[in-house]
């Protein structure tokens, strides 16, 4: 009693009834019309998925279970007075739609900490990965290896009743979320440092252990940054590549590990999660190319034009749904203004904000010239010494597990079916309309 699992168990009948009511009342209503353009154009604008954890408004940005990011600061508990919200509180909110009490947050921390250890063979697999294997590939390998202990896969094999699918899905989800900081830290320490990971401390919270194991725990500010980072990247409604992949693969009743590993393949794409790596690499390249730590706005503009002339994107800018500055960017900017306003890299990131939107708007085809979450995260991590850009998307992945796996628990609790949209050939489309 008092646990996250107990609360979800109480909520399931209500949510099942809500879904049934939605079906009965509105089952035959149109959400949007599919056009040929949408079928060719990555299904942009197709309202085609049910996703209860968060909703993205093109102008305002993300709301998690109805709460905007500034509202999260008001309602969620923090570890430091007036500081960043605690990731465990975010997990609770995403899973239940309810703001947790401090006791509930503490019980979740305890629960996660009791699940954090890795099987030895997974540690060995990571230790045997070559250093030049991309950290995202190592993450996928480790998550696939953790699948050996999937409780859902075993329960399915043993014939569990479909009404009970959510329970082993929940167990796998919490186990995986609990283990990801150690997986990520091992990858980081193996690839970029001495291979040694600081011991896990069951008395500390999720983000504090994570920053300790990465090797930055002596800085309270870095730990606060981890809290912010883990909260901000947790979910971005259901249609983005990592969320949709988890849903799609999970809909075949693949277990949470397999579904999440597949999603990490999607997050590893440079148009999605890998953009945070690309942003930092691109800025470092610019600074080296211009031979100054403080490039002027004119120099930055010139460099942007060169990037575009080479047929490359400006990483960290643009979005498929957003049409304004990403509030996740704003939250990170606020963190920088509070803690590191004189950092030269932050100055450059700020100057880019003043220069890039105008240049992208002038192209005439970019639907959103404003920065997204990935435009800012690297400069914050760099400030505290975490400069290895190739690692950034792994941290994004740790956070993204909160949202996509919580939704997966609900997918099973609500009995959502296997996903299988109809596809068409060019010829069949032509025949339809000629
Ligand atoms: N720089 C240059 N060109 C850009 C651009 C950018 N930042 N953003 C969009 N465009 C171009 C597109 O490539 C496209 O060009 P073509 O018609 O020649 O193919 C055109 O503008 C129209 O694209 P759009 O409708 O505005 O954007 P999409 O919905 O197709 O794509 C996104 C969205 C994010 C992939 C795109 O803006 C982009 O590539 N941005 C840079 C990469 C990035 O920051 N990704 C991270 C997104 C957040 C995340 O998922 O983590």
From TrEMBL:
Biological processes per GO annotation: carbohydrate metabolic process; citrate metabolic process; tricarboxylic acid cycle
Active-site residue numbers: 272, 319, 374
Family, similarity comment: Belongs to the citrate synthase family.
Any one Gene Ontology molecular-function term assigned to this protein's record: acyltransferase activity, acyl groups converted into alkyl on transfer
PANTHER family in the cross-refs: CITRATE SYNTHASE, CITRATE SYNTHASE, MITOCHONDRIAL
Name this protein carries in UniProt: Citrate synthase
GO CC term, one of those recorded: mitochondrial matrix
Keyword annotations: Transferase
């Amino acid at each position: 009693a008092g646990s996250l699992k107990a609360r979800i168990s109480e909520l399931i009948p209500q949510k099942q009834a809500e879904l049934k009511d939605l079906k009965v009342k509105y089952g035959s209503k149109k959400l949007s019309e599919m056009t040929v353009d949408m079928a060719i154009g990555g299904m942009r604008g197709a309202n085609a998925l049910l996703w209860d954890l968060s909703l993205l408004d093109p102008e305002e940005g993300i709301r998690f279970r109805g709460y905007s990011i500034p509202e999260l600061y008001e309602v969620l508990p923090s570890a430091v007075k007036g500081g960043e919200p605690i990731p465990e509180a975010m997990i609770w909110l995403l899973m239940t739609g309810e703001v947790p009490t401090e006791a509930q947050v503490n019980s979740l921390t305890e629960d996660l900490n009791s699940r954090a250890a890795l099987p030895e063979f997974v540690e060995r697999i990571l230790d045997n990965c070559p250093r030049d294997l991309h950290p995202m590939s190592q993450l996928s390998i480790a998550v696939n290896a953790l699948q050996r202990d999937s409780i859902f896969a075993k329960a399915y094999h043993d014939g569990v009743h479909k009404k009970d699918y959510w329970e082993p899905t929940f167990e796998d989800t919490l186990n995986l979320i609990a283990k990801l900081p150690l997986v990520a830290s091992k990858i980081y320490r193996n690839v970029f440092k001495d291979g040694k990971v600081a011991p896990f401390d069951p008395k500390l919270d999720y983000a504090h252990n994570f920053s300790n194991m990465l090797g930055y725990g002596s800085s309270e500010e870095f730990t606060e940054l981890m809290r912010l980072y883990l909260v901000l990247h947790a979910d971005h409604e259901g249609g983005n590549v990592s969320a949709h992949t988890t849903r799609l693969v999970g809909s075949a009743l693949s277990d949470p590990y397999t579904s999440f590993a597949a999603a990490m393949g999607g997050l590893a794409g440079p148009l999605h999660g890998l953009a945070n790596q690309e942003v930092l690499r691109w800025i470092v390249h610019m600074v080296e190319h211009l031979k100054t730590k403080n490039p002027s706005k004119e120099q930055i503009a010139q460099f942007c034009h060169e990037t575009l002339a080479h047929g490359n994107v400006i990483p960290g800018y643009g979005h498929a749904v957003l049409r304004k500055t990403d509030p996740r960017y704003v939250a990170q900017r606020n963190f920088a203004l509070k803690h590191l306003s004189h950092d030269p890299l932050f100055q450059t990131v700020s100057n880019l904000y003043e220069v890039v939107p105008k240049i992208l708007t002038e192209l005439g085809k970019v639907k959103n010239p404003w920065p997204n979450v990935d435009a800012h995260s690297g400069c914050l991590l760099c400030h505290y010494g975490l400069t290895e850009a190739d690692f950034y998307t792994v941290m994004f992945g740790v956070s993204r597990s909160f949202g996509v796996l919580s939704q997966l628990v609900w997918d099973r609790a609500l009995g959502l079916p296997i996903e299988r949209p109809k596809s068409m050939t060019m010829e069949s489309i032509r025949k339809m309309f000629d």
